[in-house]
Design brief:
about 200 residues; alpha+beta; 3-stranded antiparallel β-sheet; about 45% helix
Length: about 200
């Protein structure tokens, strides 16, 4: 189990962090590490507060049930998170994660310092995942096009110019044939070459 001291930076409840770490360590996948844990601090007595754990792969909402004897976990993979934000109030802050499918997940009554760190880490991961999703969209577009490379506006312009040049060459070739300057065989041969380049 990981050293608990590294997660007690913003006055988290040590017992809640220890309990969450014990349960979370059983859920981690290979090469997955816990980056931060924020513990809820409700204004009333709360024997087993909820917490949020951020790993290098996902956000895990940990919600103890039955006076802390059992725990429910809900996780969101970073690649599925579209947006994270916090809202600070008098009694603490609310951390909200919105998925790419527009589902909202949130936790209230987080100490403001902890919520800010959650937000900062989430923003870094969001930037990485935005680029990841962009790359995936390009790959999917490429696959949908039958493996053809998806063209940018600049490459489309160049491609159009090349086709225009080839069409112009075809017109010139036809004029040569019509003026009996080349034979039908020469025309067909050159026409095939030009059409293969389109």
């Amino acid at each position: 189990m990981e050293d608990i001291k590294k997660f007690l930076n913003e006055k988290q409840n040590p017992k809640a962090v220890e309990k969450a770490l014990r349960k979370l360590s059983e859920l981690l996948t290979r090469n997955e590490t816990i980056e931060y844990i924020a513990v809820q601090k409700k204004p009333m007595l709360n024997m087993s507060p909820d917490c949020i754990a951020l790993t290098n792969r996902r956000i895990i909402f940990c919600m103890p049930k039955s006076f802390g004897l059992s725990m429910n976990f809900e996780d969101l993979m970073w690649k599925d998170v579209a947006d994270c934000h916090i809202k600070e109030g008098i009694m603490g802050a609310t951390f909200t994660a919105v998925t790419v499918r527009r589902r909202r997940h949130y936790m209230e009554y987080l100490p403001k310092a902890q919520a800010r760190l959650l937000y900062r880490y989430a923003q870094e991961r969001e930037e990485e995942m935005t680029e990841y999703r962009r790359q995936r969209e390009l790959e999917n577009a490429r696959a949908a096009a039958g493996g053809v490379v998806v063209q940018t506006n600049e490459s489309k312009k160049e491609s159009t110019e090349q086709k225009d040049d080839l069409l112009e060459n075809l017109k010139k070739l036809k004029q040569l044939l019509e003026n009996d300057l080349i034979s039908k065989e020469e025309f067909d041969s050159k026409k095939s070459e030009i059409l293969n380049r389109i």
